[in-house]
Specification:
alpha+beta, about 250 residues
């Protein structure tokens, strides 16, 4: 009875797990690319793909360790490729896991007392059958946001309002947001941001107000679906703040 070299079976499992994991991750991008209607299926495929990559990391790693790096009777190049790919993707996922510790919120604003209101994006949200309504629910959001994101506050800029408005719109465009409305007379900019890979749609409204010698800028970023946002809306507002206040 013949026996396989040490690590052969685990190396094969690692290679197959990585191959299927990569396939699922690629499929999950179908929601953004337009060939996968359900974001739930896309998100599930991404999560399962990430799990399989973790399995690949463990099994391929142990297989290579037991075989002295040869992968035994399995393909050495494929096993090493699976291990390296799984290591990279798992590392990325671990780095992103901090977002999933964020509170279950999907509506973040720099002004929890008088938040900017959506106008132009409301029909878009209705057409997309957005699960989250466009209204701001202070009783559900304000106190939790202040506790979770104390740094997210009104942005104050020492410059005329018209200059700040133009810079705000340019910043939104530079961040890849799709401008839905730009109304200088009202100091209002509305846009839609699309998240990487899966392509979730989040809506943003920017309010620019003259306050004497300074200009006050407030933002609100709200997801169309999902109870929580894994910190995406807060991260988006911080990124905008850092860009618009940069010299």
């Amino acid at each position: 009875m013949s026996t396989q070299p040490k690590g052969s079976r685990l190396s094969r499992i690692g290679s197959w797990s990585a191959a299927i994991g990569v396939l699922l991750i690629v499929i999950s991008s179908g929601h953004k690319l337009g060939f996968l209607d359900s974001w739930q299926i896309a998100f599930g495929a991404l999560a399962l793909g990430g799990l399989l990559m973790f399995v690949a990391l463990i099994t391929a790693g142990i297989g290579l360790l037991r075989s002295g790096g040869t992968a035994g009777a399995a393909s050495r190049p494929l096993t090493w490729l699976a291990f390296v790919a799984a290591l990279a993707i798992t590392g990325f996922n671990v780095n992103r896991m901090s977002g999933f510790r964020a509170p279950p919120m999907h509506d973040i604003t720099t002004d929890t007392v008088n938040p900017p209101m959506f106008v132009a994006v409301i029909p878009l949200r209705e057409a997309a059958h957005a699960a989250n309504p466009p209204m701001y629910f202070a009783s559900d959001n304000a106190a939790r946001q202040v506790a979770a994101y104390p740094d997210i506050k009104t942005i104050v800029i020492q410059a005329p309002a018209d200059q700040v408005f133009a810079k705000a719109e340019a910043t939104a465009r530079a961040m890849g947001w799709e401008i839905v409305a730009s109304v200088p007379a009202e100091g209002r900019i509305e846009a839609t941001a699309t998240t990487p890979w899966i392509g979730f749609k989040d809506d943003v409204v920017i309010r620019v107000v003259n306050a004497g010698t300074e200009t006050r800028v407030d933002l609100r970023s709200k997801s169309r679906v999902g109870r929580g946002d894994a910190g995406m809306n807060a991260g988006r507002i911080r990124a905008f703040r850092d860009r618009i206040t940069a010299s």
